[in-house]
Amino acid sequence: MKKPITRRKFVSTTAATAFAFNFFPSRVFGANDRILLGGIGVGGKGRGEINDNSKAGAEIVALCDVDDNRAAETFKKFPKAKRYKDFRVMLEKQKDIDAVTVSTPDHTHAVAAVMAMKMGKHCYCQKPLTHSVYEARVMTEVAREKGVVTQMGNQAHSGEPIRRAVELIQAGIIGDVTEAHMWTNRPVWPQGVNRPAGDHKVPDTLDWDLFLGPAPWRPYHPDYAPFKWRGYWDFGTGALGDMACHIMDMAYWSLELGAPDWVQAEQQGMTQESAPTSSIVTYQFPKRGKKPPVKFVWYDGKNNGKQNYPPAEVVDGEDISKYGTVLVGKKGTMFFNRSRTNWLIKANGVMANTTEIPKTIPRVKNEDQEWLDGIRNGDPDQPLSNFNRSGPFSEVVLLGNVAIRSGKKIEWDSKNLRVTNAPEANQYIRREYRKGWSL
Question: Which CATH superfamily is domain 158-191+227-364+396-428 in?
Answer without folding.
Answer: Dihydrodipicolinate Reductase; domain 2 (3.30.360.10)
